[in-house]
Amino acid sequence: MITAVTFDGAPEQGTINFSVGQPSADLLPLALLRGACGRFFASAQPLELNYGERQGDARFRAALAAFLSDPGGGETSPQSLMLTAGISQALDFVCSRLTRPGDTVFVEEPSYPYSFQIFRDHGLKIVGIPLDGQGMDMEQCERQLAEHRPKLLYTIPAYNNPTGQTLSQERRERLVALSRKYGFIIAADEVYQLLHHGEPPPASFGTMAGHGNVLSLGSFSKILAPGLRLGWIQTNAELMGILTASGVLVSGGNFNHFTSHVVRQLIENGELTPFIAHLRSNYAARAEAMDKALHTHLDGIATWQKPQGGYFFWLRLLDGIATWQKPQGGYFFWLRLPAHIDAEDFQAAGRDASTGFMSGALCSTAGGLKNCLRLSFAHYTVPDIHEGIARLGRAMRAVRGTFIA
Ligand SMILES: Cc1ncc(COP(=O)(O)O)c(C=O)c1O
User: Fold this and answer.
1) Pairing with 155, which of 90, 189, 331, 378 sits 20 to 30 Å away (CA)?
2) What's the CATH fold of domain 16-26+279-403?
């Protein structure tokens, strides 16, 4: 059995590195996918291995629309959906279809660090709009809109990576109204929308796709398996027309037909909803464990809020040592250290103690937030979380004396 993580920059065996935002082996649905593959091959026709529709297989979109139309999700039509190879690819695709080099994109400050490179790949100017505890600060956003006239606004509205903050329904509606007023497109990265394990978020931006310039980006990475590289965009007919006129789609249809055939089996068999419930209860236990372990080993260093869904805790380091707030969902704790302390200064001690975290500056558009750090609880079991936080607490306390008398 492969127990080692096999991706670029993977932590060494034996290390409990909380920078890893991927599920642990025991939460990856091998048996479910084996069953789904078996059912697909039992009835598949040779033509199903051909190219397919530009928006993605119609049967898949019907199954996905029915799944997304579950109570609370609003009514979703198959015509409003196109398949993607996940949110990272969707962002790249959206940039190539809807922006030009030199355009501006607004992002949350802090935000998902790997999105920055995608925007830079397309020559976009990135402007960070601060979060104020309840998601994007809408006053600041509106002030900056007139000055920068962005083409795109990228938001992670439910359980933001890295802070765990969720945008209220009122702010969502205001953002959609602003998108019409200032003519920008909202790219809502809703990767954690279904991964709450506490207070659920407001309905997805997909429910507002008909009311403005909205792209709701979804993914199976966090609700099934990242390696599938399968996701979707929900949007209105006009934006769908621009997206599907892409030469890549004209040449061969949608990105990931085969995987979509397999995943359709799983959705049609009613297996996705219980699997997500299984993930939620596991992540709830891990979030609880991280919260407890932080209290045991980092009290006096940081404060945090236990997430109600997803993988992450967001920790805040207070004056003196550290603070954090327990989020309502997502993968992360975000810790804030006193302003004069650089979280990076704890990395070496963390490595020596066989643990690790993501430095906050990586999540900042301008290399700020140096005094913050992100911890994910997705990749480790409850006992490993206790052990890893104990190691981190020892490492931080040892270094802390350098900064705080
Ligand atoms: C906010 C956010 N967006 C996108 C992704 C990646 O999504 P995908 O695997 O669908 O490309 C991640 C993965 O951690 C994420 O945290």
Assistant:
1) 378
2) Aspartate Aminotransferase, domain 1 (3.90.1150)
Task: Find the Cα–Cα–Cα–Cα dihedral 243, 249, 251, 253, rounded to 10°.
Answer: -140
* CATH code, 51-270: 3.40.640.10
- pLDDT tens string, the chain, 405 residues long: the values are 455 557 887 888 899 999 999 999 999 999 999 999 999 999 999 999 999 999 999 999 999 999 999 665 578 999 999 999 999 999 999 999 999 999 999 999 999 999 999 999 999 999 999 999 889 999 999 999 999 999 999 999 999 999 999 999 999 999 999 999 999 999 999 999 999 988 999 999 999 998 879 999 999 999 999 999 999 999 999 999 999 999 999 999 999 999 999 999 999 999 999 999 999 999 999 999 998 998 888 766 555 666 666 676 666 554 435 666 766 767 999 988 888 889 999 999 999 999 999 999 999 999 899 999 999 999 999 999 999 999 998 998 887 654 443
Q: Is 88's C-beta closer than 6 angstroms to any atom of ligand 1?
A: yes
The ligand 1 atom at the shortest distance from the C-alpha of residue 160 is 1
Our separate counts of H helices and E strands in the chain read 12, 15
Ligand 1 contact via 219 beta carbon (within 6 Å): yes
Whether ligand 1 lies within 6 angstroms of the CB of 113 is answered as no
Cα of 80 to ligand 1 centre, how many Å? Answer: 21
| pTM value surpassing 0.85 | yes
Place of tokens 């601060």: 130
> Over the range 239-255, which residues count as b (16 or more CB within 10 Å of their CB) and which as e?
bbeebbeeeebeeebbb
User: Which protein residue's CA is at the shortest distance from atom 9 of ligand 1?
Assistant: 221
Angle between helices 87-98 and 113-121 (to 10 degrees): 30
| Ranges of each domain in the chain | 16-26+279-403, 51-270
Q: How far is the CA of 36 from the centre of ligand 1 (A)?
A: 24
